[in-house]
Write a structure and sequence with these properties.
- There is one protein chain.
- This protein has 206 residues and is of the alpha/beta class.
- It contains six helices and six strands; from the N terminus they run H-H-H-E-E-H-E-H-E-E-E-H.
- It is 40% helix and 21% strand.
- It has a six-stranded mixed barrel.
- The longest helix is centred in the N-terminal third of the chain and has 39 residues, at 15-53.
- It is elongated.
């Protein structure tokens, strides 16, 4: 008797055991497939949270050995031009981090902010879909997280005074206007509670 016939005969004689083994293997394969899908989905979620939600990007360029961790305006422009001409780079967004105090006159609170270039009409969809949007035509317009807005009693159109904190700079209060309140649900609630134009952030740190 050939091995194939012998195997088929054995399977037919032990139908229940064969069926149970088949179902067990199928269930194991399904569990592995579901787990792989969950891991892939969680990885995409974390990537979106870091790259888009928290605006970290896929790659950050910072000066080596600089205690403040920022370029001067001339260096920043040269780095931007080099990055934009590099092969495989789809988008370059200069950013600067700033911390300080936000005050409405009645309430005050610390903030962790990011200065950035407002996205124009030709910006990619992934940029336009980011939480918190600035307007290119409002030079002192800022976007505030919902938690920060609640602590300061802010709403769209509210005026607020920002004062940056830097080790080697004199604090300079700057007037700003709230033009967007964004939800940071699912993201780090303490990260980047205020988004502002790049030039405004530079002024707060100069």
């Amino acid at each position: 008797m050939s091995p194939l016939r012998l195997s088929l005969r054995t399977l037919l004689l032990g139908r229940r055991r064969s069926l149970a083994a088949t179902l067990l293997v199928a269930a194991a394969l399904c569990a592995i497939d579901l787990f792989g899908g969950y891991v892939a989905s969680e990885r995409r979620r974390l990537e979106y949270q870091a790259v888009v939600g928290e605006r970290l990007g896929h790659l950050a360029i910072v000066p080596a050995g600089a205690p403040a961790g920022s370029f001067d305006p001339g260096q920043a422009e040269r780095v931007r031009r080099i990055a934009e001409t590099a092969k495989g780079v789809a988008l370059v967004l200069p950013q600067i981090d700033v911390t300080g105090v936000a005050s409405t006159g009645q309430r005050s609170a610390l903030f962790v902010g990011t200065g950035m270039t407002p996205s124009g009409s030709n910006a990619p969809a992934i940029v336009k879909d980011q939480p918190g949007q600035l307007k290119p035509d409002v030079r002192n317009g800022i976007a505030v997280s919902s938690g920060q807005a609640q602590s300061l009693g802010l709403r769209n159109g509210s005026a607020v005074t920002l004062t940056g904190v830097a080790a080697d700079a004199k604090p300079v209060p700057m007037s700003a206007q709230v033009i967007d309140i964004f939800s940071n649900a699912g993201f780090d609630a303490n990260a980047r509670s205020v988004l502002m134009p790049f030039n405004l952030a530079q002024t707060l740190l100069d």
